[in-house]
Specification:
With 373 residues, this protein is α/β, with parallel strands linked by helices. The chain has one domain: TIM Barrel, CATH 3.20.20.140. The protein is built from 14 helices and 8 strands. The chain has an 8-stranded parallel beta sheet with strand order 1-2-3-4-5-6-7-8, sandwiched between helices. Helix 3 packs antiparallel against helix 5 (125-145) and helix 5 (125-145) runs parallel beside helix 6 (161-171). The two termini are 18 Å apart.
Length: 373
């Protein structure tokens, strides 16, 4: 399907069904207890509550496009630089145990990427280049050992676009390299639309690799700076979705999406607030005094220039995402998979009773297409 096509029609989640959510809440108090229970069941369960039914655990199916890791060679390199990782969770680097976890939770494959603690903000350009080499080489080796279970979202030292391009070319075509993992911004700077980063984007497009975005941790990178950094630390919950929203909007208004029409991009955390603020963004582009921004294509088409992982947690919000972008633009993402906020990716979707083809599309089909598996 071309990016400009309308979302594929879902027989399970049309606009009429979505609107029932709103009127159902108002009528809930007037319903008998049995009807209330039925309505709650229709609403579905939040992601952390999705569990296998009486049939038990199914076979590994899901392809996870948002799954962090931190291999031992990389951890050692960080420690040698005086920057030991804060979360030394075993499943981030003990891959045999990770494989067992995947089997027990119906996950076929992880696309391995660093977490928000990626080092590009504090590392020098040279240190960043070396760290990128270490983790990319580790990912290639892991894929060689488990080609059906792990692929790599390669890391680039974005502090220096020339070094980033050099690393991209070094690993291009290597086994298991199926995506590029980039931060939304660095030190609240939109490096991605700087002219000097253009050769990197052009090469990524030429290689046919999708970009998987993620926010970068730290007060210097938080869009809300110290306002969201705590205590308590609200950055992951509030700041990250805001950063994704700003990124998507600027990629649109800068012309990057038009300049690189074949470049695929995945927004984490269901696109942040971007799908939900789309109407407001379009209004300000087109109608706000002194703001006039002319886009090359209708605004709604740009919503489908992105793919979105399904980390929105509430079934009502997921229904809205499907209504806005279609099931062919959504992939599985579990983030810090062992944190138990998404334990069973299959069951997250089963509650929506999608036709088999649509369920398969979200669980693995879109990822197979994106990652060229």
């Amino acid at each position: 399907m071309n990016n400009s096509d309308a979302p594929e029609k879902s027989s399970a989640l049309g606009r009429r069904n979505f609107m029932k959510i709103g009127v159902g809440a108002a009528a809930m108090t007037a319903l008998p207890a049995a009807a209330v229970a039925a309505k709650e069941n229709e609403k579905g369960v939040d992601w952390w509550d999705a569990r296998p039914g009486k049939g038990g655990i199914g076979k590994p199916v899901a392809i996870d496009c948002h799954a962090h890791w931190s291999p031992e060679t990389y951890n050692k390199a960080l420690a040698d630089l005086g920057q030991p990782i804060a979360n030394n969770y075993p499943l981030n680097f003990e891959l045999e145990k990770r494989l067992q976890w995947m089997d027990e939770h119906e996950v076929q494959m992880h696309c391995l990427t660093l977490s928000g603690s990626m080092p590009w903000q504090w590392a020098s350009a040279e240190q960043g280049a070396r760290l990128a080499q270490i983790i990319n080489d580790a990912g290639i080796e892991v894929h060689k050992k488990h080609p059906d279970r792990f692929v790599l979202g390669l890391e680039l030292p974005i502090r220096d676009p020339q070094l980033a391009l050099k690393e991209l070319n070094r690993v291009a075509g290597q086994p298991g390299v199926r995506a590029v993992h980039l931060p939304d911004s660095i030190e609240r700077h939109d490096y991605i639309i700087d002219p000097n980063f253009a050769p990197v984007l052009a090469r990524i497009e030429e290689l046919g690799l999708p970009i998987i975005f993620h926010q970068m941790d730290g007060v210097a990178n938080n869009y809300g700076a110290d306002r969201v950094s705590g205590p308590p630390n609200l950055a992951a919950g509030l700041d990250a979705p805001t950063d994704h929203t700003v990124l998507a909007t600027k990629l649109m208004m800068s012309g990057i999406l038009d300049k690189y029409p074949k470049l695929e991009m995945v927004l984490p955390h269901a696109g942040g607030a971007f799908p939900y603020l789309a109407g407001r963004i379009e209004h300000f582009f087109a109608h706000f005094p002194g703001m006039k921004i002319t886009l090359a294509r209708p605004f709604r088409e740009y919503l489908r220039r992105f793919h979105y992982d399904y980390l929105i947690y509430y079934p009502e919000a997921f229904r809205f995402l499907v209504t806005m972008v279609g099931t062919d633009r959504i992939v599985v993402g579990t983030d810090i998979f062992a944190a138990r906020d998404v334990e069973f990716p299959n069951e997250v979707l089963d509650q929506f009773h999608f036709p088999a083809a649509e369920r398969d599309r979200i669980l693995k089909g879109n990822a197979i297409r994106l990652l060229h598996l």
